[in-house]
Amino acid sequence: MTGPDGVLVLVWIGVILGPIVCLLLIRRLLRSRRIFLGWSLAAVAALGWACGVWGFLIEPATLTVRHVTVESPAWRGEPLRIGIISDTHVAAPHTDVKRIHRLVERMNAEHPDVVFLLGDYVGGHEPAATRPLAERSEILHGVEAFRDLRSPLGSWGVLGNHDSWYDDAAVADAMARGRVRLLENDAVRVERPGGAFWIGGLADMYSSREPPLVGGTLRQVTDGAPTVLITHWPDPFADTPSSVALTLAGHTHCGQVNLPVFGRLVHASPGSERWPCGLYDEGGRKLFVTGGVGVSILPVRFRAPPEIVIVTLRAPGG
Predict the structure, then answer these.
(1) Which domain holds residue 307?
(2) Do 43 and 129 fall within a single domain?
(3) Which of 63, 128, 272, 318 has the most CB atoms less than 10 A away?
(4) How many Cα atoms sit within 13 Å of 15 on the Cβ side?
(5) What is the pLDDT of residue 47?
(6) DSSP annotation of 204
(7) What would the DSSP string read from start to end of 139-200?
(8) Is residue 235 helix, strand or coil?
(9) Are 100 and 200 part of one and the same domain?
(10) Closest listed residue to residue 147, CA positions, set 184, 117, 125
(11) Are strands 307-314 and 80-85 parallel, antiparallel or unpaired?
């Protein structure tokens, strides 16, 4: 067994055998009267064991509902309650179809006005043609599970790099079966009693069809109603004008491992390093980056808990 699943097996072996080996070594040190060394080793081993159990086995399986309020000078009309789901990575460790059903239930319980899905629904890096049939079926069923999302203004989504590497056409078809409207450099006007707004969705940066086109997408906005821009990567925010009320992105996993003192050591792109997690305001331009749900490369999350997000977007003082 190789890859993340193999790492998880090694973690379980370490969880079981590690304390036994350490106890034997510590006992030997104490018997030889090396008291300080023995207890120091005990403390370090206990801390490492606890961090490993938490980061590899516990935190990645949790789910936080994060609530954020964004006041944007470009927003008009009544506040909009936005549900965000990103980076589910089905078929990677810790995420299967049953977990997607559970997080859909959690999202529905929040009663969002609209739900945005920000890409990377696929776990792993391999193309679909190299995957076992059962794994391909699990991935597509994980996307189709979004059909149970409930919101008055519907579910809208973009693709991520893992979806492009896997089979973007297959994922797009699964999104359609899941009643998710896919946007690839498209802008759509949404009517609502509290004031119409536009949703602009960007293509994935690894798309074989076309790159993300901020300008081309926003040129489709034909009136003064405010715009929310959704993208998998935070990188296009560098080209997003102040006329956009809010840009929403995923991809970063909030670094996936966020160490005390050292912080986030791994960044998935230049934009992920500049805007790794949370809410950013650059001269009135607003960006929110979610850490998403799943894992990639290593089956670990440490101080970067899986999350779905409710963003309340409103005008200043609204």
Answers:
(1) 63-314
(2) no
(3) 272
(4) 15
(5) 78
(6) P
(7) HHHHHHGGGG---TT-EEE---HHHHHHHHHHHHHHHHHTTEEE-SSEEEEE--TT--EEEE
(8) helix
(9) yes
(10) 117
(11) antiparallel
Instruction: Tell me, yes or no, if the pTM score tops 0.90.
Output: yes
**Quick one: pLDDT band at residue 43, thresholds 50, 70, 90?**
low
Give the integer Cα–Cα distance in Å for 248 and 171. Answer: 21
List the strands of the sheet with 197-201, edge to edge. Answer: 186-190, 197-201, 227-230, 244-249, 285-289, 278-282
Token representation of residue 84 = 């965000």
State whether 143 and 198 are in the same domain.
yes
Closest by CA to 142, choosing from 169, 168, 111, 120, is 120
Q: What is the pLDDT of residues 220-255, one digit of tens each?
A: 999 999 999 999 999 999 999 999 999 999 999 999
Give the rounded percent of residues in the chain with a pLDDT score beyond 90: 80
Six token digits for residue 40:
């120091």
CB contact burial 190-222 (16+ within 10 A = b; e otherwise): beeeebebbbbbbbbbbbeeeebebebbbeebe
The token pair at 47 is 């801390």
72 sits in the region (left: phi over 0; alpha: psi -120 to 50; else beta) called beta
**Last residue of one domain, picked from the residues 59, 79, 98:** 59
CB count within 10 Å of CB 149 equals: 22
Return all residues near 187 (Cβ < 8 A) that are at least 6 apart: 198, 199, 200, 201, 217, 218, 220, 221, 227
Q: What are the start-end ranges of the H helices in the chain?
A: 3-31, 35-53, 97-109, 133-144, 161-177, 214-218, 270-274
The answer to whether residues 220 and 268 belong to one domain is yes
Residue 33: pLDDT above 70?
no
> Is the per-residue pLDDT at 38 higher than 70?
no
Question: Do 47 and 91 have their domain in common?
Answer: no
